TrEMBL record:
The keyword DNA repair does not apply. It is found in: Mitochondrion matrix. GO terms for biological process: branched-chain amino acid catabolic process. Its cofactor is thiamine diphosphate. Its EC number is 1.2.4.4. It is an enzyme of class 1 (oxidoreductase). Keywords: Metal-binding, Mitochondrion, Oxidoreductase, Potassium, Thiamine pyrophosphate, Transit peptide. Residues 111-410 form the Dehydrogenase E1 component domain. This is 2-oxoisovalerate dehydrogenase subunit alpha. Heterotetramer of 2 alpha/BCKDHA and 2 beta chains/BCKDHB that forms the branched-chain alpha-keto acid decarboxylase (E1) component of the BCKD complex. The branched-chain alpha-ketoacid dehydrogenase is a large complex composed of three major building blocks E1, E2 and E3. It is organized around E2, a 24-meric cubic core composed of DBT, to which are associated 6 to 12 copies of E1, and approximately 6 copies of the dehydrogenase E3, a DLD dimer. Interacts with PPM1K. It comes from Hippocampus comes. PANTHER family: 2-OXOISOVALERATE DEHYDROGENASE SUBUNIT ALPHA, MITOCHONDRIAL (PTHR43380:SF1).
Length: 452
């Protein structure tokens, strides 16, 4: 009995406690609710207005409210148009867009575009014959190089990716310097330390190429920012492929350049492929130009096989980039006619017919040649004579480069540290001991003795 009564008391106590705690929780919740209601009500009391007149106040967006659920289409305008000046037969479409370049300038464009072609052919064959280790051709993209390079000032800084040899050629890099770099001989400005096609020239304001994709993009933004702070009449141009535009560095670079208001031209060579990856696997939006508005950049898409269109777009972008301190994005549509590099065989992922179309029907060199011929500036005889002369010049330079000594092996150890570290000194000594010991395997007479 006593046990039952104790149990019943405990039960009563437990129920009382449970009830009390529920009451406390309810009270707390109602206080919270009251507080919240009070805050909401107080806002309403402070700012009574008509909801149809409401404007978004969010920092970072300038837009209207809408009351219909609608997702924005990725291609807000149906395909960004492609600006061109000439048609495929070299006729000027709209006379107001004719850059009216002199005969001398146009012939220089043509000479550079075709010389690049000839140099590519000989260096490509050199690699196939085992004379150099690697090469990348520029076939089909000559118009993007020469048109943009011609629109710049010599003191503008150039950051390239690797397929812009024509830009460097236009700025005055000699055939000897190209060959010296690819042959890594004693005349190479890079002292034989880089893979072929990794050119650089301090005198020509062309920053040395580096292999990891897109690293040049944030570097170019930094250089443009420094130039802006110096307040001098100078711009930076940064070349990259549509594949490199997928790298994180590209996005960081675009945003920094827009927010820091840098005098910079982003020049994307959209050549259809990133090695074997075609553009339809590279992005889902409307190419690279479509990204410009997202970053608040002025953007244009041009026909990269029309050297005048590239020239006009780059010239105007350069003028405004410097005058207004802001970046511009140019997407030059073109086609990579050659393999990606000598390490690639593009027949594994694209048809011969596709390549032939661009080679035969829509080529930047033939388009310019049509233009020159229609003005009476260029004949079949001129073409034959120039092809013969340019091939001969390239062959002479190539033979000279091949015979030249290799750089002094000492240069392997210099230029990184002002003073050589103990570890490096040890490595250097051990290398030279080894070479001395097995000198029959090391043709040291082929190496330069001077270290400069
Ligand atoms: C960070 C990095 N990833 C991958 C590579 C290997 N790679 C070298 S070139 C290349 C394709 C680049 O294509 P694109 O930017 O379109 O330039 P294109 O070769 O067409 O001129 C790739 C993936 C690399 N060099 N660096
Ligand atoms: Mg590409």
């Amino acid at each position: 009995m006593a046990a039952v009564s104790t149990f019943s008391n405990m039960n009563k106590m437990y129920r009382a406690c449970f009830h009390a705690s529920r009451q406390a929780a309810a009270l707390k919740a109602s206080r919270l609710l009251n507080n919240r209601t009070f805050r909401v009500n107080s806002t309403h009391r402070q700012q009574p207005f008509d909801s149809t007149l409401e404007k978004p106040q969010f920092p970072g967006a300038s837009a209207e409210f809408v009351d219909q659920l609608e997702f924005i289409e990725p291609n807000v305008i149906a395909g960004i148009p492609v600006y061109r000046v000439m048609d495929r037969q070299g006729n000027i479409i709209n006379p107001s867009q004719d850059p009216q370049l002199s005969k001398e300038t146009v012939l220089n464009f043509y000479h550079k575009m075709t010389l690049l072609n000839t140099m590519d052919r000989i260096l490509y064959e050199s690699q196939r014959q085992g004379r150099i280790s690697f090469y990348m051709t520029n076939y089909g993209e000559e118009g993007t190089h020469i048109g943009s390079a011609a629109a710049l000032e010599p003191n503008d800084m150039v950051f390239g990716q690797y397929r812009e040899a024509g830009v460097l050629m236009y700025r005055g890099f000699s055939l000897d310097s190209f060959m010296a770099q690819c042959y890594a001989n004693a005349d190479d400005l890079g002292k034989g330390r880089q893979m072929p096609v990794h050119y650089g020239s301090r005198d020509l304001n062309f920053v040395t190429i580096s292999s990891p994709l897109a690293t040049q993009i944030p570097q170019a933004v930094g250089a443009a920012y420094a130039i802006k702070r110096e307040n001098i009449n100078r711009a930076v141009i940064c070349y990259f492929g549509e594949g490199a535009a997928s790298e994180g560095d590209a996005h960081a670079g675009f945003n920094f350049s827009a927010t820091l208001e840098c005098p910079l031209i982003f020049f994307c060579r959209n050549n259809g492929y990133a090695i074997s990856t075609p553009t339809n696997e590279q992005y889902r939006g409307d190419g690279i130009a479509a990204r410009g508005p997202g970053y608040g950049m002025l953007s244009i898409r041009v026909d990269g096989n029309d050297v005048f269109a590239v020239y006009n777009a780059t010239k105007e972008a350069r003028r405004r980039a410097v005058a207004e301190n802001q970046p511009f994005l140019i997407e030059a549509m073109t086609y990579r006619i050659g393999h990606h590099s000598t390490s690639d065989d593009s027949s594994a992922y694209r048809s011969v017919d596709e390549v032939n179309y661009w080679d035969k029907q829509d080529h930047p060199i033939s388009r310019l040649r049509h233009y020159m011929a229609s003005r009476g500036w260029w004949s079949e005889d001129d073409e034959r004579a120039w092809r013969k002369q340019s091939r001969q010049t390239v062959m002479e330079v190539f033979e000279r480069a091949e015979k030249r000594l290799k750089p002094n092996p000492e240069l392997l150890f210099t230029d990184v540290y002002e003073e050589m570290t103990p570890a490096l000194t040890k490595q250097r000594e051990s290398l030279f001991r080894h070479v001395q010991q097995y000198k029959e395997h090391y043709p040291l007479d082929l190496y330069d003795k001077d270290s400069h």
